[in-house]
Amino acid sequence: xxxxxxxxxxxxxxxxxxxxxxxxxxxxxxxxxxxxxxxxxxxxxxxxxxxxxxxxxxxxxxxxxxxxxxxxxxxxxxxxxxxxxxxxxxxxxxxxxxxxxxxxxxxxxxxxxxxxxxxxxxxxxxxxxxxxxxxxxxxxxxxxxxxxxxx
Length: 151
What we know:
Elements: H1 21-27, E1 32-40, E2 43-50, E3 53-61, H2 71-89, E4 104-108, E5 111-119, H3 126-133, H4 138-150
Antiparallel strand pairs: 1-2, 2-3, 3-5, 4-5
């Protein structure tokens, strides 16, 4: 299927998938050294070695009534396919790179999931930084603000 992101949700936020490392190894047999590293937004995130590199594998739970034949869903998936191509072609140092696995639909234990791989970034996320250090200083906000439009 080779898609990447469905963009912002338009309905209720789905729950996180119920997956363990062994489930990921079953779903993505080419992944080795799989370790759960956290969750963010709607996705459960694992670290895994793939094709000679280390990547983040991200899994999102789809609603039980998800219908890939529905015209509206088909349009969303087509948009996602375009987003993947853009992500693949993007060379900005300020954008996370797509990994070797584009977005795909899979099922396990009655769960319908979307998954994909992307560059694995080390370090705390912005939420953690703000919780531990408080608001960013003005120069850092300015630096990041300049980087965003250049991405």
